[in-house]
From TrEMBL:
<keyword id="KW-0472">Membrane</keyword>
<protein>
    <submittedName>
        <fullName>Uncharacterized protein</fullName>
    </submittedName>
</protein>
<keyword id="KW-1133">Transmembrane helix</keyword>
<feature type="transmembrane region" description="Helical">
    <location>
        <begin position="76"/>
        <end position="101"/>
    </location>
</feature>
<feature type="transmembrane region" description="Helical">
    <location>
        <begin position="45"/>
        <end position="64"/>
    </location>
</feature>
<keyword id="KW-0812">Transmembrane</keyword>
Length: 126
C-alpha cells in the first residue's frame, strides 16, 4: 500500500470517521471554527503614499500657478515650498526605481511609491 493511502487511512482513524456515520465532532468543530477575519494588509503604506503624493503634487502645481501663495514671484515662501516639492518629487522617483528593482524584497515600498507617483501625476495633469 502506498504511503499516502496509509497516511490518509491513519488520519481517518484518528478522526474516528466511519463511512456510514455522520461527521465526527472533530470534523464539525474544525469546519465551524471561527475563521480569522480578513485583514487589509498594507493599507497604511498605500494611504501614506497617497497623502504624501497629494502634498508633493499640490506643491509642484503651485510652483507655476501665479495665484498660489508659493507661486512665481513669492520670494522666500515660494523658494522653500518649491524646493521641498521638487526634492519630494525627486525622492519619489528614486523610491519608485528602487521599488521596481527590488519589489520582491520590499513589497511595501512598491505599494507606497506606486500610489505616490500615481497621485503626483494625476494632480499635475489635472
Amino acid at each position: 500500500m502506498p504511503v499516502t493511502i496509509k497516511r490518509f487511512d491513519e488520519r481517518l482513524a484518528q478522526m474516528q470517521w466511519q463511512p456510514q456515520a455522520g461527521p465526527s465532532p472533530q470534523i464539525v468543530d474544525s469546519v465551524m471554527a471561527e475563521r480569522p477575519s480578513l485583514a487589509i494588509r498594507g493599507v497604511e503604506y498605500t494611504l501614506a503614499g497617497a497623502i504624501l503624493g497629494i502634498l508633493i503634487g499640490v506643491g509642484l502645481k503651485g510652483i507655476y500657478t501665479p495665484s498660489s501663495p508659493w507661486g512665481p514671484g513669492t520670494g522666500t515662501m515660494g523658494l522653500a515650498i518649491g524646493s521641498a516639492a521638487l526634492a519630494g518629487a525627486g525622492l519619489s522617483l528614486v523610491a519608485a526605481v528602487v521599488a521596481a528593482l527590488r519589489y520582491r524584497q520590499m513589497p511595501r515600498l512598491m505599494q507606497f511609491s506606486s500610489m505616490n507617483l500615481l497621485i503626483i501625476v494625476m494632480l499635475l495633469l489635472s
